[in-house]
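Why predict the complex rather than its parts? Because the way molecules touch one another can change local conformation, and only a joint prediction can capture that. The input here totals 644 residues.
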Amino acid sequence: MALVDLSKQVALGIDIGGTNTKFGLVNHRGDILDKGVIKTDQYEKVEDYIDELYKTIQPLIKKHCKTANLEGIGVGAPNANFYRGTIEHAPNLRWKGVIPFAELMTKKFGVPCKMTNDANAAALGEMLFGAARGMKNFIMITLGTGVGSGIIANGQLIYGSDGFAGELGHTIVKPNGRKHWSTGSEGSLEAYASATGIAITAKKFRAEFPESMLNQYKEEEINSKTVFECAKKGDPTAIEVFRYTGQKLGEALANFVMFSSPEAILLFGGVIKAGDFLLKPTKLHMERNLLPIFRGKVKLVCSELDEADAAILGASALVWES
Amino acid sequence: MALVDLSKQVALGIDIGGTNTKFGLVNHRGDILDKGVIKTDQYEKVEDYIDELYKTIQPLIKKHCKTANLEGIGVGAPNANFYRGTIEHAPNLRWKGVIPFAELMTKKFGVPCKMTNDANAAALGEMLFGAARGMKNFIMITLGTGVGSGIIANGQLIYGSDGFAGELGHTIVKPNGRKHWSTGSEGSLEAYASATGIAITAKKFRAEFPESMLNQYKEEEINSKTVFECAKKGDPTAIEVFRYTGQKLGEALANFVMFSSPEAILLFGGVIKAGDFLLKPTKLHMERNLLPIFRGKVKLVCSELDEADAAILGASALVWES
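Output of the joint prediction:
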């Protein structure tokens, strides 16, 4: 009996966002053989969307799978449930209720389809192809518009009893703290460490310091990028915005470390472009809040994956691992 | 080839405390066939302690293992490391530094020896023999002099990268909160929800309310038992002590749930004798701080194991599971 020849296997990775859907054919080494994009929000019915996906991707599969097999499909999507293969009540998608997405995909493409949320997919991508290669215990934190997370323990993604584990962005870092614009919770990590949270902090701080460069921008121009621009120019208020954010993030990370004792915490997403303005206070406050047995052991690492490709790679990783 | 006959296998479970060491011979169903105790703190050298253990236990093994095999030894001990089989810098034991305990035991008894800390052992015990039978995702919280924890995810104990995962008692529930008497951290769960923490809260609250029944006790008599006595008699201050404790515990549990999405949280230890005085506010504040997708799903369960036997059962469970 011949062993499986991995070099002849290809996975289809799909990243579903509210506006765009990106996809790529990926081999087991994480090389993207081909990729493309369709609009997510143009299809009222999910069946029509899947028809369009199939029409667009089928020629690429034919091209690359002459000598290789399409092993399966991995999908990263908002509110995706790994156990059930469903997308459930996703606020940013047009398809309401519980969508049996994996089943519909398998019917259309004729191969198995697995799915999970985007942060979990990103964690798998880092484990197979990125900065977490060889690690069996790490936590991935995605810092974008929101704060997502994926937790790997004992070499496996933690899905929990219902498939929704790893909602670390919604853990409370400051009881009775800042009210979340969408969940209504008070003092969640996301309320402080997301791009949205950073903008709120910046608007609050610039009102207190009229001399801050941040006051040269219009209200709607205040975001993590403009705060970073001001910090680079030495504006103390902008620097304090990131220090404050890093403190909240670091305090949260310390709690996460005492939960699963990871080898590393991986950071990913637009917010980490702030670099040391954010990372130094994050590291400081993480260490300060750890028990001595954990101190100096946990690496704080930025993702090595290209941001544009990470979501596709992560989704494709679901085919090889889960 | 005959299958393994579990009914003929016996495990030795050992629970090492600072003062006493309890042990028992346990079958795979969790029946304790025989048990006993020796003093932990009488032996300056760990080798002498193990000699005494052997001398005491060997006759019991001979008695029960005529028709059965001693499969192995499981040990629950403070600062025990599962990966290395060591006891490391345990403050409550006389043996200083890093003790290769499992290796010494295997040499003496001639069978494999696994070890972990007492809260992890308790979690395994609950999974095999107690209230968590059949569960693959739950969190065990032990509320005693300190607050310990054991986390089961995907049916496995989470040890983390260095074997020290699950120090949930030391996660911060109130930044800049109560200073911990031993670690120096500020606002940890243990500082509020342990028996020690409850006594501190009670002393603070009774000073504020001179009419409280708690003021009928001497300083050294204030503990979770006397607070419970007063609460039962309707003393509002004593009731408030548990409500406050439950709020802090519930807020912490909500964060834990959003980490690993457990099916249940199991509570264990002397503190839970306070019953609904503690459990009702705990449940309320846990639910209040959860994202809607987690609400109403997570059971809050008290341990079913007899407290005196739980540590032995849990340690023995290490032989069958790890």
